[in-house]
Every structure is written in C-alpha cells, then in structure tokens.
Amino acid sequence: MADLDGNLDAKDFGIGVEQESAGFHVKGAGQLDFGMKHRLARVFRADGKTVMLAFDHGYFQGPTSGLERIDRNIVPLAPYADALMATRGVLRSVVPAGSSNALVVRASGGPSILKELSDEHVAMSMEDAARIDAAAVAVQVFVGGEHESRSVQNMTTLVDEGLRLGIPVLGVTAVGKELVRDARYLGLATRIIAELGAQVVKTYYCDAGFERVTAGCPVPVIMAGGRKLPVPDALEMAYRAVDQGAAGVDMGRNIFQRQAPEAMIRAVAAVVHDGATAADAEAMYRDLSGGASD
Fold first, then answer.
1. Which of 91, 250, 266, 272 could form an SS bridge with 52, CB 3.0 to 4.6 Å?
2. Which residue is catalytic, options 37, 49, 202, 228?
3. What is the mean pLDDT of the chain?
4. Structural domain includes residue 18
5. Which whole number is the average pLDDT over 94-120?
6. Into how many domains does the chain fold?
7. Is 177 tagged catalytic?
8. Which domain range does residue 107 map to?
9. Which helix (H) or strand (E) holds 108?
C-alpha cells in the first residue's frame, strides 16, 4: 500500500549512518562485477566522491554560452575534474584521447529545446560506449513527465546492455518546469531510478530534506549544478549537498560560465574532496581568480 501523507514522519532513513558498502568504496556497488567496479572507481575517488564537469548541454540546447568552443573553454579544465560528462560527438571530435578523466557519455536524446524534452529515445548503443572507453553512460529519466514510461524504458534497456558489458548507467532526474524540486519528488525519482537498476543517480539539490533523498537512495547520488548561481551560492549548495550525503557534484554552467572557470572548479574540488567550507572555497576562488566578481 502506498504511504499516506500522515505517515511520512514515521519513516526512518538512518540519517548519519552510512550504508554498508560490502568492501568497495562506491555506495551500493560492492556486489557488482569487476569491470563495473573498475569503471566506477575511475569516476569516484577512494573517498567515494567525484567532481564531474558537465558540458553535454549542446545535445538539446546547441552552442550554449561558454560552450561555443569546447577546445578553448573546457579542455583546459579537464585536469581538475574527476570525470567528464559529454556526448560521443564532442568526445571524438574535441576531447584529447590522452585525457585521463573518466568519461560519462550522454546516451539519450532526440528533441531539442524547441520540442517536448521528455520525448527522448536511446541515442547510442552500449557497444559504442565500450569503443569510446566510457566509464558510464547517462540517460534522462522524466519521472512525472509526459513520456515517463518511455524514458524509464530507455534507462532499463541501457542497464541491461550495461550489465552485459560491464558499463554503469547514470540515471539523471529530469525536472520540468511543472514539477516541484522538493525532497518528496526527488526522493521518489531517485529511488525509482536506483530500484530499476541504475548504478548512479544524478539529481538536484533541495533546501529541505535533501539528506532524506540521499539516504533513501541505495546508490550514489550526485548533485546536479543546474542554472548558474552567484559564486557564494553555488559553493554553499555544493557544500550542503556533500554534507547531506551526496557523492559529489556534476557542475557545468556554475563552472564554465564563470569569469575564472579554472579557479571555480578547483574551489568546488576543495569542497568535495578536501572538506573545505563554502566560505573557505569562496576565498580560494577569489584568490585564484585575482578577485573575480563572478
């Protein structure tokens, strides 16, 4: 029976008690095959966290501000990221093959910003992901969207193919304008994605109850950066997300649209991996950027 609204407070998420990882540093991955674990270990450092740099926006937005020239604006940032999230077209045409980053490849797509975004299909085969040497593939899941069931099927199809080839799937919670980004919705979406087999989930941060979202998801939750925020707000969001159980961040516009993108990604990494506070990271950004205002 579904939960009634009045029963919500009776739930026990075990906040503050880490989930058993069965001898592997990535949450929920202890019983996966070697190849799957080996790839996840490229995405997540030994501390179980990752700084992912997202620049796959062009697959539905075109040349987004800051991504007009990926060779000039993104490639120089790669050494400061653990993983790169991009499309196969950009990886093959622009990203140096000698890059040591874990590659998370966008595997769903179809509509542009001119159409209904939830009308996606699987956009690449898992065999091609293997050819690219992807550490994982990413697929949008539109829980509550017009094409919810198809997007779920897109994901489960990739999960099945990934299990066959040892390639993890990152399920991305796609939140449309009509959906509220609160803990109840995000908890629903992330749990559905994990229950249906994704090895990692990417979702947005919410001010109230985010610790329930991460605790209720049996696989790592990576915080999506979303729209560009002022530097202090972006770093505070990253700090709170990690403090409340996120296994890192996947930021794009909050990094590559800055006056000093390199300084920003280094500040974000300090929050995720070094335990820096938002205030310390902001000071680091100002220092490395020579006092940049944005």
1. 250
2. 202
3. 91
4. no
5. 84
6. 1
7. no
8. 40-222
9. strand 108-109
